Inverse folding.
């Protein structure tokens, strides 16, 4: 009803205005610079009224004057996002080029209007890492985790990776163990753990990790065996260095049977037993290894063992000589065992035989020492000279 009344008033107003203008039409002039437009007054007023009505209708169509404000805000936001995107891109390029300061500044500067701030924070943390700014690095990582729900694992792995590359092994391990509580089977986490355990020489933890790496197919059976043997050997060396006989013997029983016959484990343990004057235990150890497979370094060690069972040692050495042929290392072993038994002439025969098969400085020295024991100083001097010549030739 009100609308119709308003419309009637408008029509009445226009009619009256038309009558007045028809009585005194007048004219309207618009000038701008050298340009001038003249028109009847009624036409100019009608044009102004038409423009007003058109603008009013347009604003009504777009829900009033607030539409213009919304358009402006949208344009301003899009411009800010575009600028943020450009700065982020430039920051990532600077990071790739090694311009750490520029990268950090651009990446942090463009975070406010970035739709994915996680990327900026993580990249800025890498730049701060390169600048040795560890406090800023950790702060960016903290912000990164807060900025994106569910990003704790990604942020934690990034932190651990940065600490790893900076050789902060203890801090890296702490970060990895924290992540492990959330994602114990995460492949990249497991790979990093393996590397950190190696750097920290935490061989016990590595041994516990190997079955998981195998189950997750991150290592095949051969790789697991290789790493397992390395870990056991390193632990054995640590025990030998500590010198606790009881602890060493207990640990030896925990070694895989295959490793208990390998020279990599047998030799250091055997020499430790020899230094501890435990010849009988050393003989048992090396005998089992020699029965499994012949090795020159094992038979060389066997010749140094002078325990209460020299006859048995001679029998094993002769058996190996029969199997291996005229092997000079076995002949040297037999010579040392014969000398330990007091059979000096037999020892001299084995040494001469060894020199006939393959001359060596060690055989010459052993023969020279034997000649001194036999009282033949001139011959001993000649063999010492031969040993020196053999060393020079080598």
């Amino acid at each position: 009803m009100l609308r119709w009344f308003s419309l009637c008033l408008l029509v009445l107003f226009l009619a009256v205005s038309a009558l007045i203008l028809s009585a005194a039409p007048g004219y309207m002039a618009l000038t701008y610079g050298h340009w001038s437009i003249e028109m009847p007054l009624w036409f100019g007023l009608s044009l102004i009224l038409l423009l007003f009505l058109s603008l009013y209708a347009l604003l009504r169509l777009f829900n009033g004057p607030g539409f213009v404000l919304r358009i402006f805000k949208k344009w301003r936001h899009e411009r800010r996002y575009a600028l943020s995107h450009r700065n982020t891109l430039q920051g990532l390029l600077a990071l790739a080029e090694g311009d750490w300061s520029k990268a950090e500044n651009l990446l942090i500067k463009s975070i406010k209007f970035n739709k994915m701030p996680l990327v900026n924070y993580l990249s800025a943390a890498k730049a701060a890492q390169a600048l040795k700014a560890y406090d800023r690095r950790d702060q960016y990582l903290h912000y990164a985790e807060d900025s994106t729900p569910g990003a704790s694992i990604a942020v934690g792995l990034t932190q651990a990776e940065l600490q790893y590359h900076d050789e902060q092994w203890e801090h890296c391990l702490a970060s990895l163990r924290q992540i492990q509580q959330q994602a114990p089977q995460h492949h990249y986490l497991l790979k990093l753990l393996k590397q950190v355990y190696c750097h920290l020489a935490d061989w016990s933890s590595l041994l516990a990790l190997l079955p998981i790496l195998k189950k997750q197919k991150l290592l095949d059976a051969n790789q697991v065996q290789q790493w397992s043997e390395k870990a056991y050997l390193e632990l054995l060396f640590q025990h030998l260095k500590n010198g606790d006989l009881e602890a060493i013997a207990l640990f030896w029983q925990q070694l895989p049977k295959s490793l208990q016959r390998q020279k990599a484990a047998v030799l250091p343990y055997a020499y430790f037993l020899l230094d501890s004057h435990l010849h009988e235990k050393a003989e048992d150890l090396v005998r089992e290894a020699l029965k499994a497979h012949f090795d020159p370094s094992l038979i060389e060690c066997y010749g140094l063992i002078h325990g209460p069972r020299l006859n048995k040692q001679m029998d094993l050495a002769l058996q190996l000589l029969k199997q291996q042929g005229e092997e000079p290392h076995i002949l040297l072993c037999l010579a040392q065992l014969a000398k330990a038994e007091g059979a000096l002439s037999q020892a001299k025969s084995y040494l001469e035989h060894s020199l006939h098969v393959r001359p060596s400085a060690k055989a010459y020295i052993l023969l020279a020492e034997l000649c001194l024991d036999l009282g033949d100083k001139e011959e001993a001097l000649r063999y010492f000279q031969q040993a020196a010549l053999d060393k020079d030739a080598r």
